[in-house]
Amino acid sequence: MPLELASKPQATRPEPSRRFSVAPMMDWTDRHCRYFLRLLSRHTLLYTEMVTTGALLHGDAQRFLRHDEAEHPLALQLGGSVPGDLAGCARLAEGAGYDEVNLNVGCPSDRVQNNMIGACLMGHPGLVADCVKAMRDAVGIAVTVKHRIGINGRDSYAELCDFVGQVRDAGCRSFTVHARIAILEGLSPKENRDIPPLRYDVAAQLKADFPDLEIVLNGGIKTLEECEQHLQTFDGVMLGREAYHNPYLLAEVDQRVFGSSAPVISRAETIARLRPYIVAHLQSGGALHHVTRHILGLGQGFAGARRFRQLLSSDIHKHPEPLAVFDQAAELLQGR
């Protein structure tokens, strides 16, 4: 049964810090991945995979909105371009306890373009502004936008400022800027993450020209040293694939980015804390690989990493007691 649309409630959570976040990534940042990442960093803002308005309004909304309380601070990323539909989905997100709703204006795939979702919306700043206003009028939680610095055919700095200005005037105060243009014809989504050159200078100019806005930098960031450097210019940084493939870098985020005095969690303690979650997932009828596929990168950087990955990606599917294989992999992390 679809969730009912509630009237606009008051936000019950403080607005999350966006000083460091992990990007929404399709097929990757599901609830199991987010639970795992949360074990590594208490303060990192986590995002869901992009969820379309149609999936929430006409599909199994409970499945898409489901999350563990431990995942907070947590944002839902929406894909859509109909203001009323986005407002309805924002209400669902707020009702489900999310801390933020983010509108995807950056995905370059043909599939989403055909539904007027993602980066193609940069060519329609007035529509994006209408979408943001509808969501802001509907909910008390933060409404943010993630976008590119342009698209082919609309990639001048003046056009970028026009886009940000119109969306700002609709009430958006936080923009996550992927510092590449998106080429909407001829490049795959993967190629759009690599081929258009990174232009951190354009994003920095945007922050200089819109000092009242929160500007979060995304694109090509791989180390905490780079994060610390970018935070001298920007209000926040967002990591994508590096955070997924090398998740243990999140273990130092709370200390180095947020100034926490808590001790850095070890790899061994991380996997030990994950085990009860896995057991509960198995008892509910889930499969072990739903979780373990997200933790393969935890072994990166030590001599037993290859064996760790082999156990969790291959051997675990052949063993009659997969949890025993998980425990075997965990033993490789002892003392690390």
Short description:
Its EC number is 1.3.1.91. The chain is α/β, with parallel strands linked by helices.
What can be said about the biggest beta sheet?
A: 8 strands, parallel, barrel
Q: Give me the number of helical elements.
A: 16
Instruction: Please report the distance between the alpha carbons of the first and last residues.
Output: 46 Å
N-to-C series of helices and strands? EHEHHEHEHHEHEHHEHEHHHHHH
| Proportion of residues in β-strands | 15-25%
Helix content percent band: 40-55%
Give the total of domains. 2
Q: Can you tell me the CATH topology of the largest domain? A: TIM Barrel
The gyration radius over C-alpha positions equals 20 Å
The number of strands is 8
Describe the strand arrangement of the main beta sheet, using strand numbers. Answer: 1-2-3-4-5-6-7-8
How much is the average pLDDT?
A: 93
Binding site for FMN: 24-26, 77, 146, 178, 218-220, 240-241
InterPro entries: Aldolase_TIM, DUS-like_FMN-bd, DUS_fam, DusA, tRNA_hU_synthase_CS
Site (Interacts with tRNA): 104, 190, 193, 306, 309
Active site: 107 (proton donor)
